[in-house]
């Protein structure tokens, strides 16, 4: 009897606790970090530092990498990816045809211990820039369409993805465009400077995410609507298995703040194109269970989302179609 009362009151406490966690996790408040005038398409959001953090840093359509300096200053120029870029020709441009000259970075990841910032540029490959920013150095080139990357903080390896061997970022908005299965998932070893192709034949790119313990990488295929788990260690090392088929197109995956969990930016109805795009954030675990879905449809109506980056309990949302980074909080 006593145990029964005890266990039911424990259950009550547990259920109450669960409710609080769920209610406090709905991300109902919204605010914006506005880009400088004319700037568009902040597709990434990365923070620098382990204890005191700076940022977010973001990549925009006109080729710049910007750093958020707080509400009084806003975003300021931090880095760029090609020596052919001039501020006069490129700043504020949204013309994809200028990408080869101005650069078009799409993804960022910090090596937190060194402060080096790794960059995936749609036209200019894999690059790195030091803590003071400026012109980034190309580490590997010759790619058609790099879209995502993540640094493995334990080994220093960079995992990155190439959307296609045949088309580039300009082609996807051209009439008659058809995606193909020539995407790849790759690794750059900063010590040997070697690039290895880990997976090929992928249908659409997206941003891979290394697990915190370094045992696997989650690899999205945007067009296929699929996330695979690529094992780095253990009996299945160097093999991939499908973890989750998503409703909609998964773009970047990022580690959530809770160990073993991830946030995925998903746009439903993007590819193949439908009359309405529904943008969402999915929180998943390493078994592929969807733990939470947050809708961004009110603030990102009919727009795709590229990234959901959790930081200090808030969600920073990146999109090709906005002039701000959205911040959802509780
Ligand atoms: C992609 O677009 C570029 C620039 O508009 C064009 O030169 C190229 O032929 C296109 N490639 C494909 C595969 O459509
Ligand atoms: C959503 O955007 C697409 C493409 O820009 C457009 O064709 C469509 O009409 C839009 N849908 C709504 C409901 O506004």
TrEMBL record:
Residues 1-25 form the signal peptide. Keywords: Glycoprotein, Signal, Vacuole. GO terms for molecular function: hydrolase activity. It is found in: Vacuole. Pfam families: Str_synth. Residues 149-234 form the Strictosidine synthase conserved region domain. One of its GO terms (cellular component) is vacuole. Its main location: other. Belongs to the strictosidine synthase family. This is Strictosidine synthase conserved region domain-containing protein. It comes from Tagetes erecta (African marigold). The lineage of its organism: Eukaryota, Viridiplantae, Streptophyta, Embryophyta, Tracheophyta.
